[in-house]
Each structure stands twice: as C-alpha cells, then as structure tokens.
Known about the structure:
Elements: H1 3-21, E1 29-31, H2 43-49, E2 54-55, E3 59-63, E4 72-74, H3 76-81, E5 89-90, E6 96-100, E7 106-110, E8 121-127, H4 148-171
Parallel strand pairs: 1-3, 2-8
Antiparallel strand pairs: 3-6, 4-5, 4-7, 7-8
Helix pairs in contact: 1-4
Amino acid sequence: MGDLARKGIVGLMIIVVVMIGMDGAECKLHKVGARGWIPNYNYTEWLNQRDEHFYVGDWLYFVFDKHYFNVLEVNKTSYDSCNDQGFINNITRGGRDVVQLTEPRPYYFLSSGGYCWGGMKVAIYVEQIPPTPAPSPTPAKSGSSLSSTTTTLMKTILSTAFYVALVWSSFFN
C-alpha cells in the first residue's frame, strides 16, 4: 500500500473517530465564499450577509486554484497585518481543502503571496455547540421512522464519504 493510500486511510479513521465522539452532534460543512477562495473578494461582507453560525466540529471548505493561492491559519496580529510568516497551520493540500473547527475560538485564515492585501482573508468565530433540549416522547406511528441511532450512523457514513470524496478529488486536480 502506497504512502498516499495509507495517509488517506489514517485520515478517514481520524474523521470517523471524531464524528463518533461527537455523540450525534450535527457537523456542518461551510464553503468559504460564494465563488470560492479568490482575490478581490470581501469575505467579511460575505459573512455578514449570511445568518450562519460556526460551531465546534464544523468544517470549512476552501475551493481555489492551488497553483496560485494557499490557505494559512494565522494569529490575529498576522491576520490584521497580512503577515504570512510564522503561520499556525498550512491547510493547503490540493485546492479543495477542508479544515475542522475543533475548539470555540476565533480562527484566522489568509492567502500568502500578497493576496491577503487583495482581500483573501477571513476570520471565523467558532462557538460551543449549544445544548439540545431532551426530545419529548412521542407516540409511535405505524410504519415508524428510522431510530435516532440509525439516523446518526447514516449521517456519519455520508459525512465521511463526502470528506473522502473531497480529499480524493484534491489528489487528482
């Protein structure tokens, strides 16, 4: 088995473990930007137009031309000054890249090579998953629907399959 395949299997196993550990919480995949990760675009305005919240466990999906751009996680000071030196994490893999938001805090992303000055930067504020109220018991109907365990399992399988497809496609672009 090649190095690439081994890394893909390890990544898949990590995703499955994380999703199972979230105890049925619904993770959401957020595509960054209406047209993707591009220069001369105001990502702050894009965020302000959306009534969307980012929660622990959610994923950001960056779509961009890997030959020109990248995605770096930086601290607030570097974000404010468009400094790409000493970045926290380079999430660039193939132009169809995802990053999981693992803790409640602000996340700062930018593209290096001067593109940050052209607007390629975004600050995402991540919240703790709000507690869900306990479901009230409802009477069983004939032809009852899927159990919550089955539904959660199906969501996990679909989310994992989607992630694998994203990673797989990034290797062939």
